[in-house]
Amino acid sequence: MRIDIISVLPEMFTGLLDCSILKRAQDKGLAQIVVHNLRDYTTNKHRKVDDYPFGGEAGMVMQIEPIDNIISQLKTERNYDEIIYTSPDGEVFNQKIANQMSAYDNIVILCGHYKGIDYRIREHLITREISIGDYVLTGGELAAAVMSDAIVRLIPGAIGDEQSALSDSFQDNLLAPPVYTRPAEYKGWKVPEVLLSGHQAKIDEWKLQQALERTERLRPDLFDGNRD
Length: 228
Prior knowledge:
five-stranded parallel beta sheet; two-stranded antiparallel sheet
């Protein structure tokens, strides 16, 4: 899988994409993440990629030309499953979307900035708009990094134990049950006896009940969806 990220602040990705699971997936050849500096695709001698909006709105808007230039070039090199724009008014990113995108071959993520991008880009070049939550960030770089991490870790082989990814929170629209490790007792705090019993059917039943209880208590919106 290849992820092309378009940014005006490519230095923000230094370190984020080069450690842990993302690094291992790239080292194994399972994923390729390429960050492009949008300023390399403008014809402005000062490498400017924004301008004042028509209509007198406050703030600056990302221009159409440099974005069209880089997306057009990328599309001559390969086919893309999605060209994504990180936007506060996009659909909210979740595990279902991450699962879907982990099966893609190539995606582009355009990081939003300033007051946004010239709307014609959204009308003619973008195939999907995604938000990572109901709040505003300085730019879309953190959103692009979050999405890349969530997607790449689901690629078969990216995680040593693939069953671990399948048991993550939200995979079945439930929060994960509590987890424990050694020692079985610490300062009088004990691990639930059922987890030490070796009775897998009872352990599985306990985990499901815990997942249901935690989801109903902490995320009732998800719990209601499980009852539909």
